[in-house]
Amino acid sequence: MLSSNVFHKHIDQHCYEVRIQNPSDDHIPIAIVRAAIDEILAIFRSERTFSISYDQAGKPSSYSMTPKSLRKSENFLGSTPTKRFWDWQGEIPASE
């Protein structure tokens, strides 16, 4: 499992990144390690965005990690974001 303060991701034989490798039973452990390393490297290269969504009262309601390229499609209401975003470098302003 990869974990941060706001999100965690299980990397095991059931996750997409392992299944697409279509490993034999003997190679599942290797596929899991490769998928974990690839995900860690993507985080370090700031290719993953972590986000926190907030409800109407301003309390955190959900947490996610997505490819940074998908962040532009996230919803904002007026000038107050319903989400805040971070990558490896720190918080990403809503204007970016």
Properties at a glance:
96 residues, alpha+beta, two-stranded antiparallel sheet
Q: Care to describe what's here?
A:
This protein has 2 domains: 1-44, no CATH class; 49-96, no CATH class. The protein has helices at 16-19, 28-44; strands spanning 2-3, 8-9, 48-54, 60-67, 76-77, 80-81, 83-87, 90-92. Residues 76-80 have low confidence and may be disordered. The chain has 2 helices and 8 strands; from the N terminus they run E-E-H-H-E-E-E-E-E-E. Strand 5 and strand 6 (80-81) form a beta hairpin. Strands 4-3-7-8 form a 4-stranded antiparallel β-sheet. A two-stranded antiparallel sheet has the order 1-2. It is an alpha+beta fold and 96 residues long. The longest helix is centred in the middle third of the chain and has 17 residues, at 28-44.
In short:
With 96 residues, the chain is of the alpha+beta class. The protein contains two helices and eight strands; from the N terminus they run ββααββββββ. The protein has helices at 16-19, 28-44, and strands at 2-3, 8-9, 48-54, 60-67, 76-77, 80-81, 83-87, 90-92.
Major β-sheet profile: 4 strands, antiparallel
Q: Report the β-strand fraction as a percent range.
A: 25-35%
Q: What's the total number of strands?
A: 8
Q: How many H/I helical runs?
A: 2
The total domain count is 2
Instruction: Categorize the overall geometry.
Output: elongated
> How much helical structure, as a percent, in the residues?
10-25%
Radius of gyration: 16 Å
| Class per helix and strand makeup | alpha+beta
Instruction: Give the termini distance in whole angstroms.
Output: 30 Å
Can you list the strand order of the major beta sheet? 4-3-7-8
Q: Outline the low-pLDDT stretches.
A: 76-80
Helix and strand run: EEHHEEEEEE
Task: Quote the average pLDDT.
Answer: 80
